[in-house]
C-alpha cells in the first residue's frame, strides 16, 4: 500500500484471543516508556519510545482495526466492535471479530498464531531527541488512525517511516560533526600562523 507521508507506522505487542469461547481479541497497540530499536547505522542503534502522556490529547475518534493497514475494516469504534483504552502500560485494544465472515477468518488466523503481531498508524505532533542515547521520545500524538493485525514483523511501513526519520537525524549529526571538525582545523591553522609570526618576530 502507498505510505501516507504524514503517518507513522510502528510494530507493537502481540494481539491474542481473550478466551476460547468468543471472537474477542486483545492486545496493546502501543506501550509507554519502552524503548525499541528503529534502525541501526554504522554500529549506532537509533531508538524510539512513546512517553506515557503522549496520548493524553490524541484524537482517538473512530479508530478502525485493519489487516496490514490495507483498507478493509474488521472492527471499528463507531459500531462498538473496537474498544480502546489508555492505561499505565499503553494503548489497550479489544476487538470483537464476530460480526462478519472476514473478521471471523482474521480471528481464526490470530487464534492459530498465523497472525500474531500488531501495528498502529498515527501522527506525531511533538517529540524530543536525546543525542547521547540516540533515542527519540514521542511526547505528543496528534491522531491515531488505525490499529492493525499484521502478517510479518518487518512491516515495510515501519521500515520506511523509521528510516525517513533516522536519515534526517544521521544527516544532521554528520553535518554538525563536519562543522565541528572544520572549526577545529581553522583554530589549529590560526594557532600555527600565530606561532610562525611569533617565531619570525624573534
Write a concise synopsis of the structure shown.
The chain has 202 residues and is of the alpha+beta class. It has helices at residues 101-111, 156-201, and strands spanning 8-12, 15-17, 24-31, 36-41, 44-50, 64-67, 75-76, 82-86, 90-96, 117-130, 135-150.
Word description of this protein:
The protein is of the alpha+beta class. The protein has two helices and eleven strands. Helix content is 28%, strand content 38%. Strand 2 and strand 3 (24-31) form a beta hairpin.
Coarse structural class: alpha+beta
Total helices: the number is 2
How far apart are the first and last residues' alpha carbons, in Å? 74 Å
Question: What is the rounded Rg?
Answer: 24 Å
Question: Share of helix among residues?
Answer: 25-40%
Largest sheet: 7 strands, mixed
Overall form? elongated
Roughly what is the average pLDDT, rounded to an integer? 83
Strand content: 35-45%
Poorly predicted segments: 154-162
Total DSSP E strands: 11
- The SSE string, one letter per element, is EEEEEEEEEHEEH
Amino acid at each position: 500500500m502507498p505510505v501516507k507521508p504524514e503517518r507513522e507506522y510502528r510494530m507493537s505487542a502481540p494481539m491474542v484471543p481473550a478466551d476460547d469461547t468468543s471472537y474477542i481479541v486483545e492486545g496493546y497497540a502501543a506501550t509507554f516508556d519502552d524503548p525499541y530499536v528503529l534502525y541501526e547505522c554504522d554500529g549506532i542503534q537509533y531508538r524510539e519510545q512513546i512517553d506515557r502522556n503522549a496520548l493524553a490529547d490524541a484524537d482517538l475518534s473512530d479508530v478502525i482495526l485493519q489487516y496490514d493497514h490495507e483498507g478493509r475494516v474488521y472492527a471499528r469504534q463507531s459500531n462498538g466492535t473496537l474498544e480502546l483504552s489508555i492505561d499505565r502500560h499503553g494503548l489497550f485494544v479489544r476487538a470483537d471479530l464476530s460480526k462478519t465472515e472476514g473478521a471471523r477468518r482474521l480471528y481464526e488466523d490470530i487464534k492459530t498464531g498465523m497472525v500474531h503481531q500488531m501495528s498502529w498508524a498515527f501522527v506525531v505532533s511533538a517529540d524530543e531527541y536525546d543525542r547521547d542515547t540516540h533515542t527519540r521520545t514521542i511526547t505528543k500524538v496528534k491522531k491515531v488512525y488505525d490499529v492493525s493485525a499484521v502478517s510479518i514483523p518487518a512491516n515495510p511501513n515501519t521500515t520506511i517511516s523509521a528510516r525517513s526519520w533516522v536519515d534526517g537525524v544521521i544527516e544532521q549529526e554528520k553535518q554538525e560533526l563536519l562543522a565541528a571538525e572544520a572549526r577545529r582545523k581553522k583554530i589549529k591553522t590560526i594557532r600555527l600562523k600565530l606561532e610562525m609570526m611569533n617565531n619570525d618576530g624573534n
